[in-house]
Amino acid sequence: MRHLMMISVSTAALFAAACTPADQTTATAPADTSTTTETTETVMSSNPLLAEWTGPFGGVPDFDNASLDDLEPALEEGMALNLAEIEAIAGNPEPATFENTIVAMERAGKPLSNVFRYWGIWSSNMSTPEFRAIQAEMAPRLSAFSSQITQNAALFARVRAVYEGEEMASLRPDQQRLVQLTYDGFARNGATLEGAAAERYAAIDSRLSELYTAFSSNLLHDEENYVHYLSADQLSGLPDGFVQASAAAATARGHEGEYAITNTRSSMDPFLTFSDERDLREIVWRDYYNRGDNGDEYDNNALIMEILALRDERVELLGYENYAQWRLENRMAGTPERAMALMEGVWTAAVARIHEEVADMQALADSEGADITIAPWDYRYYAEKVRAERYDLDSEEVSQYLQLDNLREGMFYVAGELFGFNFTELPEGTVSVWHPTVRVWEVTDRDTGANVGLWYLDPYARTGKSSGAWANSFRGHTTFDGETNVLATNNSNFVEPAPGQPVLVSWDDATTFFHEFGHALHGLSSNVAYPTLNGGVRDFTEFQSQLLERWLLTDPVVNNYLVNVDGEPMPQELIARIRAAANFNQGFSTGEYLASALMDMAYHMTPPEEIGDPDTFERETLERLGMPDEIVMRHRSPQFGHVFEGEGYATGYYGYMWADVLTADAAEAFEEAGSYYDPETSRRLVETLFAPRNSVDPGEAYRAFRGRDADPQALMRDRGFPVTE
Predict the structure, then answer these.
(1) Would you state the pLDDT for residue 41?
(2) What is the rounded distance in angstroms from the CA atom of residue 373 to the CA atom of residue 361?
(3) What pLDDT score does 467 carry?
(4) Dihedral of CA 305/311/316/320: which sign?
(5) Which residue from 113, 120, 148 is spatially nearest to 135, judged by alpha carbons?
(6) CB 7 within 8 Å of CB 209
(7) Contact, 425 vs 443, CB < 8 A?
(8) Dihedral sign, CA of 145, 147, 152, 158?
(9) Hey, is 724 helix, strand or coil?
């Protein structure tokens, strides 16, 4: 999951509170900001990016009239308007109250928030060299703007007055949490600093914003420019659907008659799984895992070192020993040591399983007379052969029943049964979209017919689109100024098929599709009052999406939506083989993920001067961990966008595993109830773990659902690893 705003993420929590994230649509200027209202209306009417959203469904972004020419002036005007609102709040002569300070901040910044919805699409879905030039130019200015808010002493004094005041005790629990989050957003991001320390903190933020933008641009360059073209005699082993999609991708790039293997996971993964051409597998593997690490002007290693040094210096100004300590202080894990303890315990089991998997693959290769030693570019290929031999399970056979359109309808079925949502596709042109292949559905309450929001789906890979899959929202549910609906988006990178052909995906891709839809449902089910409460705690926010993956293998989905192009359902004996193989290759999937998560933590718990250079540090750290030679990190350091394109997942990549513990334990709750569609368990899930978003402490929320804390051993049971105390 990616973030829309690629600015100074160290102050992201405060920036969201001050500017109002994309979660707000209805805004009322604070009573003492009337002097800025006329200016706001003038700017909003002249610049389409700042404009009030109009049209159906409570107003929607106007992508038809969005132009890059308007972006820079819109950002400048939006920042000026937002700062005027902030100054009015900070300078209010009345004593600070929840309403005139905290709620006023929730209302502020709506025009700028609108601009960032378009910024996010240009950044993640439709990037161009022209946008990246604007991004690079604006990054330090946006950081400086953010610092003006975080270091506004008068504003922080008012926030602290509410936080420490008598009114706090009389507020509702969700309002108290909003005050706490707002206060922490200041206190943890430099508001307590003065003089030279405050200036240095702002300067660090400014430089980091430039480095994050450069890291992202370098990575996108390598994804766009390392394309391998095949001839017809190099297609041995590749599925027909993948061949057709690769031909279409080559034609789109001016290579008619050839087949393009692009430098994205959606192209690399199936190629390494099925191609019989070992030399070509190595080339494609090296292209993918060397992104950002090619020793040229787009190399990210030097950027990593500067990022780490600046992060360390910044938290030292706040009195923390290292960046990891600062980052995890307000997470579920609490400390880096607790996060490491969880990961190291699972790592030992994963490595042992990897050695078993490699031994099985090597034995098969030897029996075929391959005369090779299993290398990283062989892992997927021979794992697929072992899977077929052991479980009589062929991934290509399975993919025939995994049509993208049917998977989507299966997700809608689950959303209806658990959440009471209906999805109805809107006719083309009802609302504007950023690309012709984007489709939109209205989401309604199944019982009342009331509008819940819209769901945008951007499914296909293309030049300028970030790789991977993610969810975002243009607007979240709030009630504090009138109820707003939700505008949620899911974004994937499936290879667009040839005309008239279905999109057939792998089991892993189908699981990811359900995963990201879980993020969308988390937003669509929100019942929070204030924009900031639509945020999340990093090691909890992946739980809801990881849990939704479990419904892909439930009987109603399998029996009704996993059908082939002739409409024939997946045979029961194939379903049985899939379930039997559920934990197959678990060493690889767990190990490649954990290697990245452990490296993330190692980078931020080690003094930067002891790291040397990232390539060496990565290699030596993994050697100490006992990393098997046959696998690599899921995201090697120079392409680890989760950690170095911003700070959303920095020392937070472990959060997927922390959430996996919750997921495994919650899944056992449904199993104990006898069905993944048990009405009472489903109701409790939605009411306690989806709808509250960040209005309740995650630990309290989980205990409300389960009646206790999650059992860490549920994860080991779920993955088929030995269960230990």
Answers:
(1) 47
(2) 10
(3) 84
(4) negative
(5) 120
(6) yes
(7) no
(8) positive
(9) coil
Q: Residue holding tokens 């309604």?
A: 444
DSSP 533: G
CB 327 within 8 A of CB 338: no
668 flagged as catalytic: no
Q: How far is CA 438 from the centre of its chain?
A: 19
723: left (phi over 0), alpha (psi -120 to 50) or beta: beta
pLDDT at 536: 86
In the block, which residue shows the tokens 């200041």? 186
From the CB of residue 137, how many other CB atoms can be counted at a distance below 10 Å? 13
pLDDT tens per residue, range 322-334: 999 999 998 999 9
DSSP string, 293-339: -SSSTT--HHHHHHHHHHHHHHHHHTT-SSHHHHHHTTSSS-SHHHH
Listed in sequence order, the DSSP H helices in 318-403 are 323-328, 336-367, 376-391, 395-399
Packing angle of the helix pair 110-124, 71-90 (nearest 10 deg): 140
Half-sphere exposure in the Cβ direction for 322 (13 Å, CA): 17
d(CA 169, CA 184): 18
Residue 2's pLDDT is: 30
Q: How far apart are CA 556 and CA 558, in angstroms?
A: 6
The one-letter code for the residue type at 628 is: P
Distances (CA, A) of 123 to 4, 45, 51, 133: 8, 24, 20, 11
- Predicted local distance difference test score (pLDDT) of residue 316: 97
Q: Three-state SS across 543-602?
A: HHHHHHHHHHHCHHHHHHHCECCCCCECCHHHHHHHHHCCCCCHHHHHHHHHHHHHHHHH
Q: Are strands 421-425 and 451-460 parallel, antiparallel or unpaired?
A: unpaired
**What pLDDT is stored for residue 395 in this prediction?**
86
The pLDDT score that the predictor gives to residue 339 is 95
Report which secondary-structure segment, H or E, holds 455.
strand 451-460
8 Å CB contact between 333 and 339: yes
Q: To which H or E segment does residue 228 belong?
A: strand 228-230
Measure the CA–CA gap between 194 and 324, rounded to whole angstroms.
Answer: 24
* Half-sphere CA count of 643, side-chain side, radius 13 A: 32
The answer for 331, left when phi > 0, alpha when psi is -120 to 50, beta otherwise, is: beta
Low-confidence ranges of the chain (pLDDT < 50): 1-45
Q: Catalytic residue among 223, 258, 396, 516, which? A: 516
| Nearest CA among 690, 185, 175, 160 for reference residue 421 | 690
Is 457 strand, coil or helix?
strand
Instruction: State the Cα angle at 509 between 383 and 215, rounded to 5°.
Output: 95
Structure tokens given for 425: 């596709």
Look at the chain and count its residues. Answer: 725
> What pLDDT is recorded for position 25?
29
Q: What pLDDT was estimated at residue 665? A: 97
Rounded Cα–Cα distance for residues 146 and 15 (Å): 6
CA distance 629 to 355: 10
Q: Which residues contact 11 (CB under 8 A, 6 or more apart)?
A: 146, 147, 149, 150, 185, 189, 190, 205
CB-based contacts of 484, cutoff 8 Å, min separation 6: 23, 24, 25, 26, 58, 475, 476, 477, 478
pLDDT of residue 611: 96
pTM of this structure: 0.86
CA 660 to chain centre: 15
